[in-house]
Fold:
Amino acid sequence: MNRLSGLDGSTIAAVATAPGRGGIGIVRISGDAAAAIGAAITGLAMLQPRHAHFARFSDADGATLDTGIALYFPGPHSFTGEDVVELQGHGGPVVLDQVLQLACKLGARPARAGEFSERAYLNDKIDLAQAEAIADLINSSTEQAAINAARSLQGEFSRKVETLIEHVTRLRVYVEASIDFPEEEIDFIQEGQVTARLRELIRQVEAVLGQARQGALLREGMKLVIAGRPNVGKSSLLNRLSGQDTAIVAALEGTTRDVLREHIQIDGMPLHIVDTAGLRDRGDAVEMEGMRRARREMESADHILLVVDDSAASRDSGTPPWPLATEPQQRAIPFTVAYNKCDLTGRVPHVESKAGYTAIWLSARTGAGLELLRGHLKACMGYSGAMEGSFSARRRHLLALERAGAHLAAGLNQLLYTGAGELLAEDLRQCQNSLGEITGASSSDALLGEIFSSFCIGK
Ligand SMILES: Nc1nc2c(ncn2[C@@H]2O[C@H](COP(=O)(O)OP(=O)(O)O)[C@@H](O)[C@H]2O)c(=O)[nH]1
Ligand SMILES: [Mg+2]
Structure:
């Protein structure tokens, strides 16, 4: 794809600072006419590159709108790669809008959401993953997420993907050459070298995928759904974990009917906790609807915290006692069992590893064992202390990496069972395409539109 085909030669302008009032507000202008517009507004004959000009911002009639600093960054050494002028004035919505209107009267047009970043991408200043990292950096809600986004913006993730692309390309060239020159055909299987390289590539894609998963989790957080029978202490646990009195706690069965949500952080790891109605086989219409919603939440959970009343555990049949027909072990969703109310049973809070799940004994009332639960949830999110070398990633990136891995696996199968070099070459081509979607080397216009339109104006 020719990236430059997305550019229309227009000059764009937008307020680059957050809406509202602030000490300083910035109008950013990018495009061929930027320098002329900047000169006209400031009344300066010309703006010196990378020089802070103190100037009056005046309209065509000479009326002063504001005073501030004008900066000029000639392309290609600017954020967008085009001529960029920044007018830094006072941060009031009306005065900034006046300066913006003036810039538009002088030949700019209002920028679309994300259009500055899009131009930076189209002019090859950053790749797609880096552009997304800008949005992630601005939107990050935890320190670790911000650090990760900054690493992606520096190209940490992109470099890993590019290395993968390079290796795939090299293998592809090798395979295709042997197809194109059959007189020199190599017996792939006999030789074994291609198989080994494929296996190594699969391992590398898996490694990057693992890191990207962690990055995505840190960016988006883990959705933890608290589920179980009525009265086991689900709402008490939500309140304990969030440190807030969010949910009504009562000795009455069927107290919680609506789905309750809290967003918390455990050592910088975002966790979205969802408290749900207790599951049982009866209840009035409202409670039944609550249970229906509880099940729906469980289906979209990243992790389920199944709460069991330890003092009544023997009453619930089965080990562990699954509430009614909602058996998380039948789904692919990982889960943890919290044996609550251990203050009543006198059991010491502790963690046990069971087949396919973890069990934790705790008390929502006394808070005993809560640290064990927090530590366990952190581990489930992939918390590893230092988090060195981690970077931000999005679900889109994970899917692309998964597709790339699947194409490699398919290619390996072709090679092992049919010995078909052509089919392997095709799988490698598709693998390369999938990886290219991450950095934008092979992305459709629709995808670009979708990504940049989610940015805010002026970014
Ligand atoms: N002794 C004891 N009681 C608890 C504990 N956790 C909750 N409860 C009590 O159990 C009852 C039901 O609690 P609640 O959080 O509303 O349970 P839910 O229906 O699962 O949301 C309330 O009376 C709570 O005070 C606990 O750890 N120990
Ligand atoms: Mg409740």
